[in-house]
Amino acid sequence: MSGAAFDTPAGRREEAALRRAMRDRVTAAGTSFYWAMRLLPRARREGMYAIYAFCREVDDIADDTRPVAAKLAALAEWRAEIAALYAGAPRRLVARALHPAVLRYGLRREDFLAVIDGMEMDARTDIRAPDLATLDLYCARVASAVGHLSVHVFGDASEEAHAVADALGRALQLTNILRDLDEDARRNRLYLPRELLERHGIRSCDPATVLRDPALPAVCRDLAALAERHFRQAARAMALCSPRAMRPAALMGAFYHATLEALLRAGWQHPERRVRLSRALKLWLVLRHGVL
Predict the structure, then answer these.
(1) What share of the chain is helix, strand, coil (3-state, %, to 5)?
(2) pTM of the prediction?
(3) Residue 113: inside a domain, yes or no?
């Protein structure tokens, strides 16, 4: 539905319902994303909620237990929906919620398609011990591409802001991988790169076997070092961007960097135990990066 179609009483009611639906998707998840987005003015925040909802839609398809062909068909439908969105005639609820942000902030079609490409990597097969190049491509698609969309909404679409998206997206995704080892293993997935496993004498690609290997902490520390390099690259690029526009990115980076530090302290001795940040630390990070 185009923006003009909302210029009726019924249209305005539908627009309000769309906004509530997108907001509810984010608040129900209870993620650090929610706190970072609260730093944005309303229109920009609603644009980010719609991007988040799109990511959840396609991620849920990739994680579904349906046959591969059905998942690929569902992702292909989303490719068609993105084409409809950019033709000005979105049909699905989430795509209709995205439409104002696409027009207002110049969101790039290729970034939406890159996210779908990343979800296809998960949908086609259970990823197990990819090589570093494949892992980097996966992170670029499922995380950095979201960052490229986000910086436009934040209000800084400069080359430096896109460099933040490239580096911070990778840092966040690697942190997710290191945090979610057990959850991914239960889905028969293992994102730890083959080169690091082999460096520490692990030849198996079976997720459960790898998680029991005594060398697992060493592998994880090496991958954490790579994530740390991406965090540093993001910080250098962010210093060249609009500080106000980058506040949500800075807060997201702070949450995830604190998570990475907590993982390093825990040492991956018990990957089934999920690391969580304390409420006090989260509050301090919100104050530090959102207010001070």
Answers:
(1) 75, 0, 25
(2) 0.91
(3) no
Q: How many domains does the chain have?
A: 2
Separation CA 104–CA 169 (nearest Å): 23
- pLDDT tens per residue across span 91-136: 998 999 999 999 999 999 999 999 999 999 999 998 999 999 999 9
Residue 84 backbone dihedrals phi, psi, to 5 degrees? -65, -40
The domain of 187 spans: 126-292
Using alpha carbons, list the distances in angstroms from residue 98 to 27, 80, 232, 259: 18, 15, 31, 30
Residue where one domain finishes, among candidates 59, 80, 107 = 107
- Residue 229 has which token pair? 């390099």
pLDDT in tens, 219-256: 999 999 999 999 999 999 999 999 999 999 999 999 99
Residue 118 lies in a domain: no
Each residue of 213-252: b (16+ CB within 10 Å) or e?
A: beebbbbbbbbbebbbebbebbbebbeebeeebbbbbbbb
> Residue 50 carries which side chain, given as an amino acid letter?
A
Q: Tell me 213's DSSP state.
A: S
Q: Indicate the residue type of 115.
A: V
Q: Looking at residue 151, which CATH number applies to its domain?
A: 1.10.600.10
One-letter identity of residue 71: K
Cα–Cα distance between 175 and 20 in angstroms, integer?
A: 30
Token pair recorded at residue 86: 């950019």
Phi, psi of 128 (to 5 degrees): -135, 115
